[in-house]
Amino acid sequence: MALPEMGFGLRFHAALTAILPVQVAILIARGECRHPLVMADSLELAPALPLGDVLVEELPLELPYGTMVVMLPVALANFSTLLGETVGEALLLAQSLGGVPMEHETDALYIMAHAAMRRAAALGLEGHEVDPQAFCRGLGKCLARQWLAERRPLLPDPMLFSRSDFLWQRQLSAYLTDLDPGFSSPDPLLVPEDLLSVASAPLRLADWAGRTETMLRAVMGAPEREDAPLKTSLAARFNLQ
Hints:
single chain, mainly alpha, 3-stranded mixed β-sheet, 7 helices, 5 strands, plasmid, membrane, transmembrane, transmembrane helix
């Protein structure tokens, strides 16, 4: 592992946290890493040996507790494509850390992907050099790994996830319904623009995942968690209730 070139690292960090307000460390992976890896700093590589402690020992960096660690391939792809793929992996991490009911997981990931895409499309107006189409193709690479696996024969167009407009294709909704009978085909036009904007400054990973889960539960009308009551009026915007 190594630190990225400073200019690239700063630009990537700024764009990523503009979409997902979470503490993050950007690193370059060595070896056969072919796509971004996104992990919690608390991930135990061995008993009582968290990833964060190893990184602090090996690299000249400070790693506050609760940091999301991003490891990028040595062979860096297009900036926006790499950003989209990284955001996808981060959304999967948030979903794994949160408590969205299993029957709503496909809906949740679909909604978060649309929210991320809409946020990425707005970054150009904020001075970030992000190409929305390339971002979406990167996001598609990640979601293809999550949703396709060995199920590719169910997909009418094998190149669907390579398209920059794959999220808006009817065949994606049809495929996800075949994949998960609980998928309810949420209307992308109703995805709140600020769904992922859960804080004005980067949060610790657990706090970010928790707030994101709260927003998702409100939007989807999912049952509230007793330890995290919802205090938002975003419910009933989808056909999920």
